[in-house]
Amino acid sequence: xxxxxxxxxxxxxxxxxxxxxxxxxxxxxxxxxxxxxxxxxxxxxxxxxxxxxxxxxxxxxxxxxxxxxxxxxxxxxxxxxxxxxxxxxxxxxxxxxxxxxxxxxxxxxxxxxxxxxxxxxxxxxxxxxxxxxxxxxxxxxxxxxxxxxxxxxxxxxxxxxxxxxxxxxxxxxxxxxxxxxxxxxxxxxxxxxxxxxxxxxxxxxxxxxxxxxxxxxxxxxxxxxxxxxxxxxxxxxxxxxxxxxxxxxxxxxxxxxxxxxxxxxxxxxxxxxxxxxxxxxxxxxxxxxxxxxxxxxxxxxxxxxxxxxxxxxxxxxxxxxxxxxxxxxxxxxxxxxxxxxxxxxxxxxxxxxxxxxxxxxxxxxxxxxxxxxxxxxxxxxxxxxxxxxxxxxxxxxxxxxxxxxxxxxxxxxxxxxxxxxxxxxxxxxxxxxxxxxxxxxxxxxxxxxxxxxxxxxxxxxxxxxxxxxxxxxxxxxxxxxxxxxxxxxxxxxxxxxxxxxxxxxxxxxxxxxxxxxxxxxxxxxxxxxxxxxxxxxxxxxxxxxxxxxxxxxxxxxxxxxxxxxxxxxxxxxxxxxxxxxxxxxxxxxxxxxxxxxxxxxxxxxxxxxxxxxxxxxxxxxxxxxxxxxxxxxxxxxxxxxxxxxxxxxxxxxxxxxxxxxxxxxxxxxxxxxxxxxxxxxxxxxxxxxxxxxxxxxxxxxxxxxxxxxxxxxxxxxxxxxxxxxxxxxxxxxxxxxxxxxxxxxxxxxxxxxxxxxxxxxxxxxxxxxxxxxxxxxxxxxxxxxxxxxxxxxxxxxxxxxxxxxxxxxxxxxxxxxxxxxxxxxxxxxxxxxxxxxxxxxxxxxxxxxxxxxxxxxxxxxxxxxxxxxxxxxxxxxxxxxxxxxxxxxxxxxxxxxxxxxxxxxxxxxxxxxxxxxxxxxxxxxxxxxxxxxxxxxxxxxxxxxxxxxxxxxxxxxxxxxxxxxxxxxxxxxxxxxxxxxxxxxxxxxxxxxxxxxxxxxxxxxxxxxxxxxxxxxxxxxxx
Length: 1023
Description:
By secondary structure, the chain is of the alpha+beta class. It has 30 helices and 36 strands. The strands form 8 sheets. The chain has an 8-stranded mixed beta sheet, with helices on both faces. The protein has a 7-stranded mixed beta sheet with strand order 12-5-2-13-1-15-14. Strands 20, 23, 26, 27, 29 and 30 form a 6-stranded antiparallel beta sheet that branches.
């Protein structure tokens, strides 16, 4: 045993470089196996924490209503309510708050409700003082302004109420008045109130579904006042506590306890009954976490598997090299009469010693890397989960490494003694089992590739997605090895009598199997690196696309006014169109609308390239922008000059339309106009402070009525306060209004800087000459998303506040509605037509770096920040899948490091043989330069073929896998699809890096080879 131990130590020392490389690769393989399951579990736990912390407390907390069984005080009922609710809670629940709530009463021209909570003034921003005596209340500041209430004065609770309110089954309060002792503002966050929006006012609204009364928000009062009002209940709000060590299992327990009370089925507790308020939705969060958990495991598995397999492939190469160096030693042992069993033991002694040495290093490396990644990337304070799967995976990798060692030793031990003693390794035909294995791999890779290319659907990653990148890398490496060897053989025969260096290099490639064997691991490493970098980059692009759908600019503001008013504001505060733009969305099943100010879209909005592959944002603008521009003006009086040669039944008049404001159409009537040239004017006071768009004109009977007419007419001037309206005649592109409900009298229309010339003829009927600015046609130009249904487009009807469209192209995504929408210019949507303001959700998009005066103007106008692009990206980057994909960046770096390390060791091992060959050439008179060129050419061809094969295999795997899987949980109609494209720029950069690194290796190896190639080298080898 002592002799064997000494032999192992001497062998490892003699082959120190190979031994160190083998230990490193084995440790990396074991460390990767340990890291994968740990990191998959950690990212899921991190997602649980971040998801719950970002979710509104009303979604994760519990809100229950306690109804006392018998008359009692608010204090006693609150204690019973809290105790009863907490008895049902199980899991990481935090603070519980009790709020006494009165019934709803008719008062203050709406519906009011009174609340009482201990310490309410401590968790509200109060102006004045807190209620201390019965009949005193705190009122929402905005409600006080709305109702005219002032601090210190009483408010009349029993006054005149609107007729719509009288029809509701809501009682009047038993108290006639109360005193307002202070006001409060709606809480800015949910730190102390489970649902802060309950502390807001609600405006009166009427719709087809019913009547919503005005509500001034809760009136905060004393418990005694609540008791005097009679009918009351206690609301119990419980917040979810989210520590950094919460796990999915604990979340499931909390979700079950949150659903402890069945829907609409009160349960009895001490002192009364508890009813669920149905605000908690932890169950959906649990389902989302389970999906993220499976997705994280599926996404991490191919990265870890690729890393392990590349490490094992490189380990196989190094162990083969070590075994070949041990041929004399094993041949001597065989001559001394060692049995086959003892010969195998001697051969495996060194590899097993390397595996034993590498195992603890690999475990430490895996755990240490996992700890580093968890601390750097995941939520602070997250504990490191050490799961059983990691140890099982480490054992399996160790077993696989032992199998690799057995194969490497077996290739030498099973050779005949004569071959071992020959001393010269000549090319041999591939073994039958090797050919069968290679053909099996090619067939498996081909079948998976065909199935993936024929499957257009997207779903979760499956086992084929895990295998395909590795299989393609192996097949590409085998193909590159075989093709390089065959081409070198062909070139050797062809180059006789030509270039000496070419002949030498091609002959070396065709006969030196050790040189071409390096192609396979390098190809695999480069392919995995390309695939990993591509997936990571594509996922980042997809998340940017999803985030930009929600916030299509650096900052997205919500507008409280109409689109037309929002548009005017953006153009007033930013005349050059550099910082802000108006945008909006209209939800419609099957075909929603994304409405944008196309003139500013390219400068202000964020437009990911994946939204319109093959189209720039400027080309998108050109596709949807109107032919002309709707003119605008500011003034108190408008004048229009008409040159008429029209015969009509009624006096000819002109209707001028200025859109709508607050839902009210703005228009004036001018005339009548007699034959010849005449001018008419009208006051437009609403255009004095706020500019008006000049959207439409109509020639017809008085007050916009139909009339029989024929002849010609020209509108030769449009002025505001005596000055021509800019662009009113030239550039407005006036067209006959696309309105099938109105018979048009226009038979010819020409507009120019000189005026609008019309030929009119209604024939035997009546009609009007109705014009619209901007070149707006009946079917507006739009770009459609892939999820828009053609049946929905066919049913678009202006009667529901929508517009008919003519899709002029398709894009993958757009603001707010994603691939399920139609992108149109604002002018197509609002020009010269009634707009339902309730349909159009209006925003302002702000570019990063906007001046302070721009943001101040938006805030002063009552606009509020809805979200930001950075915030949306942060939410998406914290999903389990996004965190898991970060591992691909680590894998890409590691496999390249492993490939370079393996290449360095392999080159060092082959250096003596290469020096002998170079020395033999130098002895027979071959110039040093020719030898140098031959060595460089040999290495360049071998390494270059490996790089090209790796880049092609990795790119193909990326394209095939990404086109058939999803990259995250946020999948829905408004979520842009993943665009499986290959970045040519990234491939060029990778190719240049590979050429630089591998070229440097080839040059360095050639230099070292030639430098030591002397005649003495041959003498030393002969000893």
